[in-house]
């Protein structure tokens, strides 16, 4: 027990500094490189997978079509509506693919960082969604019509209309994009920090030797299990991001609030 207490006093857990990456060249950091790499991976994959489409799909084509149908039918069509969803399929599919690949970088050896754990990237994607759903709303309803549509639901008593307008303005123009970015960032930041903590803790106990070798093995097993759990969280977060983008666009183009 004394050995365990002494080791705990010597162990320094990882902190937010693990997300600070030095520039590789000219101010370009590893997360920046991974962002570009993810776009290349997605573009190449879709280009290769769709090069020889068949009526009876093989395993690769079936997997691609299933992924596409999740974005097209499960997100865009269901949330935006059958009359307005088609122009937004590339955006929703792109968001889903892009976030998913960048999240998975966190559990792939050598890469080992989910790029969405850097707050600037979720903010950038949230701004893309922000522009998309407001553009869709203005185009569908006109400037005055969309502002009224977005801020004043039908049937609201005039006595409380000013309060509702302020709340809806804050929600549509500030809270929605902020929550979209922060949800993704927080999940990836916390998950990656936990994985790093497990890895560093296991390494520390293994090198400490003695009594700590046994719990080190347990920590390694727990780390493997947590990695699979984190992969599930990464998938869910990518799905939620694209789904919420569809929900926001659907609300913007809907005939009624």
TrEMBL record:
Where, subcellularly, is it found?
A: Cell membrane; Membrane
List the membrane topology term(s).
Answer: Multi-pass membrane protein
Q: Has UniProt tagged this entry with the keyword Lipid biosynthesis?
A: no
Arranged from A to Z, the UniProt key words for this protein are:
ATP synthesis, Cell membrane, CF(0), Hydrogen ion transport, Ion transport, Membrane, Transmembrane, Transmembrane helix, Transport
Q: Which GO terms describe its molecular function?
A: proton-transporting ATP synthase activity, rotational mechanism
Q: Mostly located where? A: membrane
InterPro entries to which the protein is assigned, alphabetical: ATP_synth_F0_asu (IPR000568), ATP_synth_F0_asu_bact/mt (IPR045083), F0_ATP_A_sf (IPR035908)
Q: Which residues cross the membrane?
A: 31-49, 88-113, 119-136, 156-174, 180-200, 207-229, 235-254
Family the UniProt entry places it in? Belongs to the ATPase A chain family.
Q: What does this protein do?
A: Key component of the proton channel; it plays a direct role in the translocation of protons across the membrane.
Q: Quote the protein name from its UniProt record.
A: ATP synthase subunit a
| Species | Pseudonocardia autotrophica (Amycolata autotrophica)
Taxonomic lineage is:
Bacteria, Bacillati, Actinomycetota, Actinomycetes, Pseudonocardiales
- Gene responsible for this protein: atpB
């Amino acid at each position: 027990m004394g050995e365990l207490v002494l080791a705990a006093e010597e162990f320094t857990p990882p902190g937010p500094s693990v997300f600070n990456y030095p520039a590789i060249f000219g101010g370009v950091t590893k997360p920046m490189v991974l962002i570009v790499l993810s776009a290349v991976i997605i573009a190449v994959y879709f280009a290769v997978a769709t090069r020889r489409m068949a009526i009876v799909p093989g395993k690769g084509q079936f997997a691609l079509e299933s992924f596409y149908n999740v974005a097209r039918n499960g997100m865009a069509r269901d949330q935006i509506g059958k009359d307005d969803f088609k122009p937004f399929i590339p955006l929703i599919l792109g968001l889903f693919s892009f976030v998913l690949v960048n999240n998975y970088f966190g559990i792939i050896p050598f890469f080992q960082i989910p790029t969405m754990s850097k707050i600037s990237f979720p903010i950038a994607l949230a701004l893309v969604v922000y522009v998309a759903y407001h553009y869709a709303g203005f185009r569908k309803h006109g400037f005055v019509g969309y502002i009224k549509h977005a801020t004043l639901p039908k049937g609201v008593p005039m006595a409380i209309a000013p309060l509702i307008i302020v709340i809806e303005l804050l929600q549509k123009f500030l809270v929605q994009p902020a929550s979209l970015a922060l949800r993704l960032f927080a999940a990836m930041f916390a998950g990656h920090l936990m994985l790093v903590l497990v890895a560093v803790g296991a390494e520390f106990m293994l090198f400490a030797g003695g009594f700590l070798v046994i719990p080190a093995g347990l920590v390694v097993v727990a780390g493997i299990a947590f990695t699979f759990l984190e992969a599930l969280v990464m998938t869910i977060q990518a799905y939620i991001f694209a789904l919420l983008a569809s929900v926001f666009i659907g609300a913007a183009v809907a005939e009624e609030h």
